[in-house]
Protein 1
Amino acid sequence: MTFEIDNIPSQAGRLAVITGANTGLGYENTRYFAEAGMKVVMACRSESRARNAMASIEQEVEGADLEFMQVDLSDLSSVREFAKTFRKKHDTLDLLVNNAGIMWAPYEKSVDGFEGQMAANYFGHFLLTSLLLDLIPDEPDARVVNLSSIAHTQIKRIRFQDIHWEKRYNKFGAYAQTKLACLMFSIELQRRLELAGRKTLSVAAHPGVSDTELVRYLKPWQVSMIRYTVGPFLTHPPPEGAIPQVMAALDPDVDGGEYLGPQGFREMSGPPGRAKIMPWARNADANRRLWEVSEQCTGAEWSLEA
Ligand SMILES: NC(=O)c1ccc[n+]([C@@H]2O[C@H](COP(=O)([O-])OP(=O)(O)OC[C@H]3O[C@@H](n4cnc5c(N)ncnc54)[C@H](OP(=O)(O)O)[C@@H]3O)[C@@H](O)[C@H]2O)c1
């Protein structure tokens, strides 16, 4: 794999949607795309945070073409509203980057009755993808990119018997489940695209470990402890952490169903390449079941073969 972040061919005339684009990896991803001349729709829940981020990128990247559109991924009606507004303004979409996420949040039920992390990280993106997929051209450089994590290695199956964690909540397990679900979704979406004869690709990526606002649910002393002890050795900064997802979106050598991440110690940092997919994320029966449960939960309707 020869992807070079400093040598991205011009992406002028192309359009991307990046969820959670106002900070962390989504912000860096937006900046990379804008530098390459791509127009980016920043799909964010807070207008003021998005506008601040936009101003900062515009200052850094001359001629950056950015648009803000509001969406709360943890609320299915907001996702539907976003898709409706997007479709009024745009009739095609080259890249959808399902990036937004929260980690280790205290138990909360979303307005739709889902556990909060699962709602924002997974179910919202499942529905969003179903609502925009037909706008994505039938070609291999048109892609859906899904953010997973090393955390997918920490849980071996989706808790189908209690997917919303109503019986017993474990915030670490719940986060890991969302990231396993995102990877399973990415693989299953690719399978269904192929079955339908579509050339559009579904690719997953993870950043390793990168110091972003994702730690917002930790106590400040816990963040400091990590930041000033193991942090410098095991993590890499967001501009590097975002490279695997940019590669997943743009590298012509990437195939559908692949998973990209850093190649250093335990995939925590380092240059991007193919990442390890745990066998349970490739379990065809579980992937199909998760898809069906997700359809039931979100009401998503797909025009793809089963
Ligand atoms: N950083 C890491 O080490 C790491 C490791 C593995 C995987 N990841 C994954 O990478 C992705 C990006 O994380 P990050 O590290 O960049 O975290 P971050 O700095 O906290 O950024 C997360 C983004 O998601 C947005 N978001 C959260 N909930 C949302 C919702 N309900 N609706 C719309 N937007 C929402 C946030 O918006 P607000 O600013 O308004 O809150 C923010 O823009 C996540 O999927 C995460 O699981 C990160």
Note: The longest strand covers residues 39-44.
Protein 2
Amino acid sequence: MRTDGDSWDIVTSVGLTALGVATFRALETIDPDPMIHDGYAAWFVEAAGEPRFTRLLKDPAAVGAMARFGRFMGVRTRFFDEFFAAAWQRGVRQAVILASGLDARAYRLDWPAGTVVFEIDQPRVLEFKDRVLADHHAAAKADRRVLAVDLRDDWPGALTASGFDPRRPTVWSAEGLLPFLPGAAHDALFERIDALSAPGSSVAADEFSRGLDPDHFVGMEEKLFGDSPFGDLDVGDLWYDDARSDPGDWLSRHGWTVHLTTPFEMAAAYGRPLTDMPAELVDVAQQMRYVSAGKRG
Ligand SMILES: C[S@@+](CC[C@H](N)C(=O)[O-])C[C@H]1O[C@@H](n2cnc3c(N)ncnc32)[C@H](O)[C@@H]1O
């Protein structure tokens, strides 16, 4: 399924997963008791016009078990929102959102004045995103700089060329990204983050380095979604399962203080325990960890 240098737009291959995530955020936003509010997500879903996703937003009552997936995404979104807020409370004013997809944090969050937010993703994903945001006259709440560059290529060069300052502490996120990178690019990602991070920087990612069987994910999709919103696209086929470093281990060996948690622990901490989830989703969630780390001085 995947090849070196492959690319996509918002309705194909890995791009469709960004649209899927936006759909789940939109669903959580219109839940009667939502964990997050992302009013931008529905704009993207509507503009993409992919019927399997727009249908879900038009008829939330038909969402059924998929609402659980929205809740799961709500936990993840809140985790990363709070991670960014913690960084700016420490005075960090430079953020890099790796694989930003349809993440609207540059618009949603109340960044302190003077914050620069860099977003990196593939060109056609970002073109779509910026077109929708412009159509809605959306205004970013930070100095947003968009870098259309592949994360398997020389993204640090593009970042520094667009004004990134490695002498200043940075807050980094890699949300929903790591399984889509081949092992070499995955490991290079953390090496590059480390090389570009001044003391006081922090990074967060969700990861499956303990292993996730793609067939298991597909089984879950079929059972939860029935008619999968991803259509014939098998999301498990988009993932790499080649060897790679464990991000938490790697970071702790390279001068970072690491904290690991799980979606279950965070949901409980938010007072929204994930108790009513189908067993398949529980299995997947149990293999996922949120790793966050701060670079020591
Ligand atoms: C599941 S989506 C997550 C998007 C976003 N972080 C979020 O949580 O809403 C995966 C994203 O990773 C991006 N991505 C995956 N591999 C990439 C690569 N090699 N270079 C640039 N972007 C990549 C995709 O384009 C997509 O936007």
Note: The first helix runs from residue 13 to 29.
